[in-house]
Amino acid sequence: MEVVHHSSAFLLPPAPANHHPSLSYALVVLNQRLPRFAPLLWQHAKLRLCADGGANRVFDEMPALLPDEEADVIRNRYKPDVIEGDMDSIRSEVLDFYIKLGTKVVDESHDQDTTDLHKCVSYIRDFTSDLDKSRLCILVAGALGGRFDHEIGNINVLCGFKNMRIILISDDCLIHLLPGGQNHEIHILPSVVGPHCGLIPIGMPSKSTTTTGLQWNLNGTKMQFGGLISTSNIAKDDTVTVHSDSDLLWTISIKKSQDRLHCQHHSYNFFKPFRSNAPYKLIILHARPTAASAMVRLPLDPYLGAPVMPHVENDLKRQATQVAEKTKEICSSKSLNDAQVEIRDCHGRNLLCHAVDKYNASILVVGSHGYGALKRLKRATREDN
Amino acid sequence: MEVVHHHSAFLLPPAPAGHRTSLSYALVVLNQRLPRFAPLLWQHANLRLCADGGANRVFDEMPALFPDEEADVIRNRYKPDVIKGDMDSIRSEVMDFYIKLGTKVVDESHDQDTTDLHKCVSFIRDFTSDLDKSRLCILVAGALGGRFDHEIGNINVLCRFKNMRIILISDDCLIHLLPEGKSHEIHILPSVVGPHCGLIPIGMPSKSTTTTGLQWNINGAEMHFGGLISTSNIAKEDIVTVHSDSDLLWTISIKKPQDRLQIVIWDPNDGSENKENLHILITYLPIFPVVGTAISRIFHHGEEDCHSDEPNSPHNNGILVVDSHG
Description:
Two copies of one chain form a homodimer.
Chain A: E1 3-7, E2 24-29, H1 38-44, E3 45-51, H2 54-65, H3 71-77, E4 82-85, H4 92-101, E5 104-107, H5 116-127, E6 136-141, H6 148-160, E7 165-169, E8 173-178, E9 183-187, E10 193-200, E11 206-212, E12 219-223, E13 230-234, E14 239-244, E15 248-254, H7 257-269, E16 283-287, H8 291-295, H9 309-333, E17 340-344, H10 348-359, H11 373-384
Parallel strand pairs in A: 1-9, 2-3, 2-6, 3-4, 4-5, 6-7, 16-17
Antiparallel strand pairs in A: 7-8, 8-15, 9-14, 10-13, 10-15, 11-12, 11-14
């Protein structure tokens, strides 16, 4: 049976210009606060649409996401190709600004029967002959949060266009449909998504769902509202497979980089009282994943093959350097001036062994990765024997 | 057929002490930002539970909703009766603070199979014999937003406990279940909710739904995901009726302060403002037919929410200002 592959590579930096990715992206911006990685999604997209008030969001909020540059420069750079919708939310000065820059405006105020997202997806499907629809993925920012009926209306668009790849994205998570009757392989990029995930039988009960790669796998299990649905699950492996008789919504959390730093602040407070006469040496280790491990094995996909590795590698190096610098700043702010910060290229679990071997560590302090202290201990013990 | 009545009176100030209300409320606070009217929900509730990190929210954010008062005073006043959950989010200083004040802590870290909300609803159902369950309504703050799987998990609690009244509330909207096979009457309080609303066939298609009172009524039509579901509808009348063969989620928007007008009663012949009458009229005004008709006049009252249309002029009668209901 045909396997359908899914990945969240759009949350990594785009491939170099001369490289042909396997998927091409369109971006739709709805009228909610822009996610913090909106500029990244924008870079990936060949086509950028704003649905009505989404244009206000780009105009107002894109400069705030890129504070090192002038607002005018940002506004000129991040110019939508199309603004579509019933035009009852977009401010007139925003509309004028983008019209002057050449944005196409499609006024659909006559159509009150479909949501703004529905209109945008129809537009992309019907009026963009230069995009290869078989390889198209529509990214949607601003579909979640706010009024619940809007959110559900947007999810209904996923169900109404189930032969198209459409991904709803917020700061906290992403959602897309896994149509029933197909074998789905979801490639987890652990540097950007997970581990919290869920499978939801939206619209009708699922008689039988089977998964691999989750903490709590389903095994021909029945799912329905009022009974079992899979929420607060954990993606354990880098590939999760799903097969179900009916359509399921897949959702997975998006990692926040500041969570790591917040925890560090709290941890280092412990050491503050000892800073002037410490009976220990404090060493802070950061595990930097390699590009190969971060990108995971993907099926013969030229986008995610060797040519892109150096760019992912560079980005991971840059992120790790930023983490190290931030860590040094935090230590300095707490007068922990003797703390040593080291970056090591390995998986987190190997880092623990390295710490003991190289530094003869007496005490290891590790993060709980959001699992909670007891759950994490149980997991680590089972995993590492 | 039995008619089930629904209303959102919990978004109005509580009735005066001597007045018997038909429902008693319990409040569950989950771990998301508190809605701006959290203090109002707290006042209505006979029982207040925090689910794990919800206690952090009350501790951190309740004082911010009362910037004119001391944080300590607020924290002592807004003390949960119970903190329940697996305790992996609540901060230790928050837990200690509430334990000292007498809050009961129920540690459920052994139970990884049910959500925090599920645990709280079970607790309310099973361990609160002094609450009359037939008149009980559980208000839930912090169930929406954040991770989508959490949100859906919370909605699933509504489906699992469909014989209990449970309402999920955020700054933007409220959601509750309309169990199948019953005639539902939803009383709209236009000063606080609406007009945007929706009916959602969560979990399974609905073969036949019939409504009245909406802009786009449904007349025996089928609803299912991938096809028609009722979103971005408008509540036109003060009572919306719904009857369906399957469970539906009802959702309606909550008005933001800037969408509402202050309702003021001013009798220039009476030196005072007669606050007691003011209160009662605000509570019961929405059921008067006069609500929903246009504004006649706005007079400056000296309070910041009102604005002036013409200079104060003497009248012999009290002036009633009403909301135009959109």
